[in-house]
Amino acid sequence: MKKIIILGVAFxxxxxxxxxxxxxxxxxxIVGIKDPLSSATGEFGDFLTMYDFNGITSPSSDHIASxxxxxxxxxxxxxxxxxxxxxxxxxxxxDYTRIYNQDNTWADATSSTGKQLQHFQxxxxxxxxxxxxxxxxxxxxxxxxxxxxxxxxxxDKNWELIGINRFSNKDAFVSKTFINGISNYIxxxxxxxxxxxxxxxxTLLKQHLYTNYIQIKVGNPTTVTLKDDxxxxxxxxxxxxWWFFDVINETQDIQLNGFSSVDIGIFNxxxxxxxxxxxxxxxxxxxxxxxxxKIGDNFxxxxxxxxxxxxxxxxxxxxxxxxxxTLTRTAPPYxxxxxxxxxxxxxxxxxxxxxxxIELNGDTYSMDNSYGYHxxxxxxxxxxxxxxxxxxxxxxxxxxxLAMEKVExxxxxxxAIFVTVGDNTIYFEDIDxxxxxxxxxxxxxxxxxxxxxxxxxxxxENKEGYAIDFDAIVQKNIPxxxxxxRILNEQVxxxxxxxxxxxxxxxxxxxxxxxxxxxx
Length: 520
Fold this sequence. Notes:
Elements: E1 2-3, E2 9-16, E3 19-23, E4 47-51, E5 64-71, E6 89-90, H1 93-98, E7 107-111, E8 115-123, E9 133-142, E10 147-153, E11 158-165, E12 172-178, E13 192-199, E14 207-220, E15 238-248, E16 262-268, E17 271-277, E18 284-286, E19 293-295, E20 298-304, E21 307-315, E22 320-329, E23 334-335, E24 344-360, E25 363-366, E26 370-379, E27 388-395, E28 400-407, E29 415-421, E30 424-429, E31 432-442, E32 449-461, E33 466-481, E34 487-501, E35 504-519
Parallel strand pairs: 1-25
Antiparallel strand pairs: 2-3, 2-15, 4-14, 5-6, 5-8, 7-14, 8-13, 9-12, 9-14, 10-11, 10-13, 15-26, 16-17, 18-19, 19-20, 20-21, 21-22, 22-24, 23-24, 24-25, 24-26, 27-28, 27-35, 28-29, 29-30, 31-32, 32-33, 33-34, 34-35
C-alpha cells in the first residue's frame, strides 16, 4: 500500500428555514445536555455526576436558589460580599420546578427599578481532590439588558465572571468547563458551590431576570459523554451541525477536508483534490444518544466511548475518495467555553491513534499509526463571527494534545486553549495571538482569492503558573468559499513550541497539525 497523510473529514447537517442540505465537511456541531448522568464509585476512579434543582422544594436544606430585587449598585458585578449575599429571598417551590429542566418556563425576578440578582448554592458531594473537571451551565435571559454569570472563588475571595448573555429577551446558555484550580470554587468543608446571575447596571426601565435551567457537572477525568457528541437538533429555524475529523501521517503528504454538501479535500504531495456530493434529507440519519451518523454511504459509528469508525465514499465524476478509518482517543475531551451567539464547540477527540486506509482515484494509502482529531459544532443560529483562527495538534505516543478556539471578530467571543500532556490537562484563556507573513493570491475558480497569515504565534498563561508558547507555520492551504465574501482557509501547519510551569519547560513539540483562518 502507498502511504498518505490526511487533514480533515467531517459530517455536516444544515437546516435553514426548512430547506436542507447535508455536508461532509471541515467543522462540526451539536446541542445541549438534558438527562441525568450516573455516578460510579471508587476512590479516584472514573465518575460523572450531574447536579440541578430537580426535586427541590421550598424551603430547601439542600441546593438553594434565591433572588434579590432592585439593587442600586451601578456596577455589573455582584455585591462585593460573598459567597452569601445579604437580603436574599428563597425561590418558591413552583420556581424550583421551573428551573430544573430546559423548557419554556422560567423563574422570574423583577422590580420597578434597579438590577435583578439570582443566587444559587449547590452542594457537591464528591471529594474535591478527586474532581478533574467541573462544568457550569446556566440558561436564561433578561428583559432589555444583559445577564452576567459569576462563580465564587474561595481562594481569591471574589466573584469570578463565567460569561455573559448579551442578548436581550432571548434565552442563551452561559457555560464554562474548569480543569485547573477546581478546589477554588468548591468549599472543601461542606461542598458548597455558589453562582450569581445578575442583570447589567440599572436603568430607569423595569427589568426581568429569567432563569430557565441551571446545571453543574463534576467528573473524573471528564464531564463529557458520548451523548454530548450525538445529534442535537430540536426545532431551530436556522441550524447547523457537523462532526469533523482530521488525520495526519508525518511521513507522507495528504490532507482530507470538506465543507458544504458532502465535500472532501485532500492534500497529496503538491496536489489538492476537492470532492463534493450533495444528498437529500431522506439520506440523513443521526442518533440523539450516541454519535452514530449517516449521510448516504458515509457514516460515523462510535464503537465505544474512546473508539470511532468513520467510513465514506465520494465521487464527483472527476475524482473519487474512499476511506475506512478507526480513531482511538488518547486524550480526554475538551468542552470549550460557550459564548452566546456562537455555535457550540466540543472537542471529543483532541488526540488519537488512527488506523485504516484511504483510497484516492484507485491508489490506496495506509494510515496505520497516524495521528487524529475529532470535534463537533452545532447551534440554532448561523455562525456569526466573520473571522476566527483555530488550531489543533497531537502526538499520541507522548500523550500530547492541544486544541485552540480563537475568535478574532469580537473580544467577548470564545478564546481558549486546552493542552494535555500525559495525565495532566491544562486550560488557558485570554490568548495572545500574533500573525505574520500574509499570503494573498488571485484564483480563477471560487473563492477567487486566497488570503491568510503563513505564521501565527500563540502565547497564553494561567493562574496555576502554566504557560504555552508556540508558532504554527502553514505548510499547505485549501481555501473554501463559505458564501461570498467569506473564505475559510483549511491548513496543514508545523507546530513548534513548548509548555512550561513556573518558568520550567515541561514539554517541547515540533509536530505537524492543523489550523484554519477565516476572512471576510
